[in-house]
């Protein structure tokens, strides 16, 4: 009886093994691009949960200029503020959305002897109050002038 079970298991293992395929989908011809299956056998595209996206290091930012006054203006946090022009200005980078739903209203800069507080304000373009926009992140940048060179002063985000 034991031999019969062993033979049955061996037969099952050989039958299930079948021909191997290097593609992710056996019905997909070898060497065809992923997701290039035909008809209903094609696997759906993977779903990426919110917040799981990645951005390439050094991804470029779209330069913008203030378009204020905007509707529903609010302070938004920025990602970085890098000195430029020998410390006489700052290149401010932040994550935003598509225009006309999210446009730069203005940037407020308050300087003291110890720190520079930069606050970015965004809102909806007043010329398109009923606009419908897709929810997609866009990296934006703008340059702000300082009254005096940055020097050793700390740069602080006024929206945090």
Please render the helix and strand layout as text.
Blueprint: H1 2-17, E1 62-63, E2 71-76, E3 80-84, E4 89-96, E5 103-111, E6 115-124, E7 138-145, E8 154-157
Parallel strand pairs: 1-7, 6-8
Antiparallel strand pairs: 2-6, 3-4, 4-7, 5-6
Order of strands, main sheet, comes to 1-7-4-3
Mean pLDDT: 79
Give the distance, in angstroms, between the N- and C-terminal Cα atoms. Answer: 74 Å
The fraction of residues in strands falls at 25-35%
Structural class: mainly beta
Biased composition (Low complexity): 42-63
Region (Disordered): 20-83
Keywords: Signal
Signal peptide: 1-24
Question: What does it look like?
Answer:
With 160 residues, this protein is mainly beta. The chain has a domain of 93 residues. It is built from one helix and eight strands; from the N terminus they run αββββββββ. A four-stranded mixed beta sheet has the order 1-7-4-3, with no helix packed on it. Strands 2, 5, 6 and 8 form a four-stranded mixed beta sheet that branches. A hairpin with a 3-residue loop joins strand 5 and strand 6. The longest helix is centred in the first third of the chain and has 16 residues. It is globular, with a radius of gyration of 28 Å. The protein starts with a helix and ends with a strand. Keywords: Signal.
Write a brief caption for the model:
With 160 residues, the protein is mostly beta strands. The protein has one helix at residues 2-17; strands at residues 62-63, 71-76, 80-84, 89-96, 103-111, 115-124, 138-145, 154-157.
């Amino acid at each position: 009886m034991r031999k019969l079970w062993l033979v049955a298991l061996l037969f099952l293992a050989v039958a299930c093994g079948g021909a191997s395929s290097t593609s992710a989908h056996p019905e997909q011809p070898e060497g065809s691009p992923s997701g290039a299956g035909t008809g209903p056998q094609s696997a759906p595209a993977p779903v990426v949960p919110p917040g799981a996206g990645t951005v390439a290091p050094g991804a470029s930012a779209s330069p913008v200029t203030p378009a204020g006054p905007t509707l529903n203006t609010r302070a938004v946090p920025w990602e970085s503020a890098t000195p430029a022009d020998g410390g006489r200005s700052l290149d401010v980078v932040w994550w935003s959305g598509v225009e006309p739903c999210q446009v730069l209203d203005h940037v407020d800069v308050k300087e003291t002897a110890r720190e520079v507080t930069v606050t970015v304000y965004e809102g909806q373009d007043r010329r398109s109050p009923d606009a419908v926009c897709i929810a997609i992140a866009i990296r934006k940048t703008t340059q702000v002038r300082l009254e005096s060179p940055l020097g050793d002063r700390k740069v602080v985000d006024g929206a945090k």
